[in-house]
């Protein structure tokens, strides 16, 4: 079998990988309104722990795979205005919803009715976006198109330096978080 | 140490109780990303597929022609492809984990919300609907959500991913501060 797989095998893996993702999100307690909202209130750091660890472990492994010719980059366009504006809008919605799209779907599976109602909202949001897309494309997405840019290109620092900095920041943050829980 | 443990609490040599579960789950998602890149050449992501589903849902409302001619759905048509089947898997993964852990339950008003805004289901469901709508709109404008931009973009050191994460946390913190301010 040569990689990457395609066709029916990839569709089977889509369900399996999605299943693993949903399982992990639920086990990590991030498929939960309380966990996500309390992250933004600095009362619970589970979201930060999961995301930073995933980015570090995933990033170093994917970098090695790419260096070894076993994977390719999938960099999204840095249409900076659209990404910053979209991310900002997303942050507001995420706190009101108490989920991000992936954790919402896993939470629906675990019985969350408000996640399911918000899912209908997400579908409507997707429809409204598609309807407004031609205008956004010409007036927002077209502004400040930096292309498929990566941080090494932006900062002049190497991949390993950036991962080193990220790992150091993450470990310091994790130690500080765990120390603050000394009373538990 | 098992991911299936209901509580990953362990006492370290320093006497600090560390719950390893979030870190182990982060490692799990990282390893899943390796597989996603190497085996299927498709990073983890949710909302591109969700916008395809939105196109499918819009078809009876707007008409098949309007959807087919839309500039956005033209490049993201609704089909059972890798992305949409991934969503199906995510749903059942969350369900299986909840059932296996014995934590499956129907939740309408979560505790943190109830403590601040009371037990009204209508109020919680209305805000959840609005929040989902806003989150999806923002995710599509940014061309990715916490998964596609945040994790998959972040781990590739993509400028879009880190810009998204910074913007998302900035407005999320302000929104949470306003929602939960002391009356």
Automatic annotation (TrEMBL), chain A:
Q: Which UniProt keywords apply?
A: Membrane, Transmembrane, Transmembrane helix
Bilayer-crossing residues are 6-25, 46-66, 78-100, 112-136, 156-177
**Pfam families given in the database record:** Sulf_transp
Q: This protein's superkingdom?
A: Bacteria
Name of the featured protein? Uncharacterized protein
Which species is this record about?
Prosthecodimorpha hirschii
Automatic annotation (TrEMBL), chain B:
Q: Does Cell membrane show up as a keyword for this record?
A: yes
Any one Gene Ontology cellular component term annotated for this protein:
plasma membrane
Q: How does it sit in the membrane?
A: Multi-pass membrane protein
**Xref: InterPro entries:** Sulf_transp_TsuA/YedE
Q: Where, by residue number, does the polypeptide cross the bilayer?
A: 20-40, 82-104, 125-142, 162-180
| Superkingdom of the organism of origin | Bacteria
* Cellular compartment(s): Cell inner membrane
Instruction: From the UniProt record, list the coiled-coil ranges.
Output: none
Q: Which UniProt keywords apply?
A: Cell inner membrane, Cell membrane, Membrane, Transmembrane, Transmembrane helix, Transport
Instruction: Indicate whether DNA-binding appears among the record's keywords.
Output: no
Q: Spell out the family assignment given in the record's similarity comment.
A: Belongs to the TsuA/YedE (TC 9.B.102) family.
Name of this chain's protein: Uncharacterized protein
Query: Which organism does this record belong to?
Result: Prosthecodimorpha hirschii
What is this organism's lineage? Bacteria, Pseudomonadati, Pseudomonadota, Alphaproteobacteria, Hyphomicrobiales
């Amino acid at each position: 079998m040569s990689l990457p797989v395609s066709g029916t095998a990839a569709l089977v893996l889509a369900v399996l990988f999605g299943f693993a993702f949903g399982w992990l999100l639920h086990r990590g307690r991030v498929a939960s309104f309380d966990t996500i909202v309390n992250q933004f209130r600095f009362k619970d750091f589970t979201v930060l722990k999961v995301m930073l660890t995933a980015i570090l472990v995933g990033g170093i492994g994917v970098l090695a795979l790419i260096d070894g010719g076993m994977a390719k980059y999938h960099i999204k366009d840095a249409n900076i205005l659209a990404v910053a504006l979209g991310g900002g809008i997303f942050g507001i919605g995420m706190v009101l919803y108490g989920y991000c799209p992936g954790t919402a779907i896993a939470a629906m599976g675990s019985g969350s009715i408000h996640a399911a109602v918000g899912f209908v909202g997400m579908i409507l949001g997707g429809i409204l976006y598609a309807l407004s897309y031609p205008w956004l494309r010409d007036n927002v997405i077209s502004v400040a198109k930096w292309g498929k840019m990566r941080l090494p290109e932006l900062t002049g620092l190497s991949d390993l330096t950036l991962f080193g900095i990220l790992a150091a920041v993450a470990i310091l943050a994790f130690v500080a978080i765990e120390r603050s829980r000394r009373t538990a | 140490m098992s991911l299936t443990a209901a509580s990953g609490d362990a006492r370290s040599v320093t006497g600090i109780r560390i719950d390893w579960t979030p870190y182990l789950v982060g490692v799990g998602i990282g390893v899943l990303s390796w597989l996603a890149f190497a085996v299927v050449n498709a990073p983890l992501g949710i909302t591109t597929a969700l916008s395809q589903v939105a196109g499918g849902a819009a078809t009876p409302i707007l008409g098949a022609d309007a959807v087919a001619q839309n500039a956005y759905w033209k490049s993201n048509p609704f089909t059972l492809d890798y992305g949409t089947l991934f969503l199906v898997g995510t749903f059942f993964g969350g369900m299986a984990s909840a059932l296996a852990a014995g934590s499956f339950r129907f939740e309408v008003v979560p505790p943190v919300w109830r403590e601040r805004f009371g037990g009204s289901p209508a109020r919680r469901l209305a805000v959840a609907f609005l929040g989902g709508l806003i989150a999806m709109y923002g995710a599509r404008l940014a061309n990715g959500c916490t998964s596609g931009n945040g994790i998959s973009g972040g781990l590739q050191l993509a400028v879009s991913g880190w810009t998204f994460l910074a913007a998302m946390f900035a407005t999320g913190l302000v929104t949470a501060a306003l929602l939960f301010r002391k009356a």
